[in-house]
Amino acid sequence: MNNNFELNPIDKIKNIQDDAVRNICFTAVTEAQKNIHQSRSIAVERVFKETSHKLPSIVQGE
Amino acid sequence: MKFKKLKLNNFRQYIGENNVEFCFDAQKNVTLIFGANGFGKTGIFRAIMFGLYGDRFLKQDKLTKEQEREGLILVNEKLLEENLNQKVTATVSIEFEDNSKNYILTRNIIGQKTERQTFQEPGDVSLIVTENSNTKPPINDYEEISTIISSIVNEKIRDFFLFDGEQMEELTKYSKESRNEVKKGIKALLQLDTIEIAQEALKKNVKDLNNQIEVNSSGELEIISEKLTETDDKISNNEKELEDLNNNIQMADDDEKEIRQKIDENKEALEKQKDRENIKKQLHNLESEINRVTQQLKEMLENSGSYVGLPVITELYTELDSLMEKGELPSGVREEFIEKLINECRCICGTNLNENQHAKDFLLNYKNNKNDKVSDSSIKVYRLTHELKTKIEHSQKDVESALQLFNKHQEENNLLNKKLEDLDEDLKGIKPIQDLTTRLEKIKNDRNSYRHRLGQLDIQLKKLKEEREELKRKQEVLSAKNEKALKLIKQRDIVEKSVEELNKIYTEYSDELRDNLSKCATDIFKKIADPDSLKSLSNIVISEDFQLEVLSTSGTKMLSQISSGQRQIVSLAYICALLKVASNLEMPLLMDTPFGRLSGAPRDACLKELPEILTQWILLATDTEFQTDEASALRASEKWGCVYEISHYADRQSKIESKDINNWQPQRRTR
To answer: What is the pTM of this model?
Structure first.
């Protein structure tokens, strides 16, 4: 496939300056991508759990 | 996704095993399956849709109610007839690859024909997935297979890539009901939904952190934290309402557009509708008038008994009138005159009555025997008959006039009713325009009230956000000595900033995608549209809710005005653009009857350009749409790798035969 447009939300997240904010966004969107084939509520719940889990270390490591 | 193989067994027209191996590499990506109408070309499309999704009928099928409920008979009907009261199994097996994984999906359907009915029930299904040469155990669970297939080709947008070419223009005509589903599908294709899920989850994190802060606080900090949670809830509710209102406004705009279009399309019907209303009014007035005249006639006819006597009265009057004419009525000389003659003793002839006793006696005798009363009565009768005759005649004239008026009104009434019937016939099936204009008014009113509420909410939201900032500031000050709360507040603030960042990214990403989609669709459109269309149409644009519009060279919106052929080209350009822009998407384009409704120039352009644009192109073409010119154009693309011909060899029996691409030429079937 001749794909002229390599757009991906992750590319946009990479440009976020604040490390902690970037890490949170990255965690949330990659987890959403992993769970995209689940139902919406399950996907949201899994992303919520993953970000809740990683949040303390992300903030501490800031 | 790339289709690799399709295996059919006893499915539709195909008895025994029939195979198709699709071209799917970068060098050769076009497969043509060629067959005359009725030979089983669409049967292959059905097999793919049944194999992937278990579909028992296609979108374009015109079904009876029973077929809607039970689906079409997919098991070969000849075999069912030959094996009366026995079960016959049809199988479809599709092999495809997606994201470096190989899939073999096999689905069975079991049919049984009795003397009265044909039954079908789903048979086994299995999915074998191979990844890095590692084949996993088969999956046999319907739900699990359905989830996996949906994750590869989202059901909401599968019609974009696997479709009947003759219905192509319908792909971009979203109904109000399907619009949101299609929008969701496109968002999924473009990965916008991953950002939405991330946003939703992070908002949940904020709420959870606020609750934790509350739990870990006491005194004034607890009160402030509680207020903050309340304010956040209010903000969240307001935002939800705002979103709903904006959706409602969008829907009202769409509805208005749709209704205006319908009204425009039905201008003639609108005129007829007006005529109809006028006629109904006239009929109403006429009915009152007819009632009035009928009442009048009734009253007149109550005295109609006298009409029976009119001939007698007329005869009597004529006779009396004739006597009057002749001077016989009143009869003879008046009594006063004779008395005067007697008193003056002189007759009218000059005779002195004193000298002519005989004459005097005659006069006296005449005077005494004369009966003037009879004469008076006759005069009276004469006058009365005249009066009566005139009265009856007038009354009759009045009745006649009223009857004439009644008949005139009745004729008019019949004429109007006939006109009304004709108009009703013409307007049959057309949604009452009056209803449309009423709906339009309602939409406008609703939209005004949404906008009003939107204004109120904006003000409230601004105020609530200010309150929240103030509460957060207070919370921070009060938590100076509460380490745990301080930590949680910090985490919450970071998550809030993340939500804000994702909001920005969503808008930016979505705008870029739409922009790219618009540019890409326009480029493709310019490559495949015929020169005449390009003179009038210049750009394809994608709206905020991912709907399609075509602009004229002067920037006017044209989608509702372009021809069905042009709409097909626009739809095809949009689908190809979606395939190009969605970076994670690798989908084949399967078109049944691809060129049926395309004229020569765009057909040639598609055959030249699409093999380059698409990952895999599968064409199910008839002998009338794919002839030597089309074969030459497709050969020139150098991407055409295989051709199959469907031949019909017995009643309800077809077979698929692979042909040598280098020597094959399409033959038009003749009688």
So the answer is: 0.67
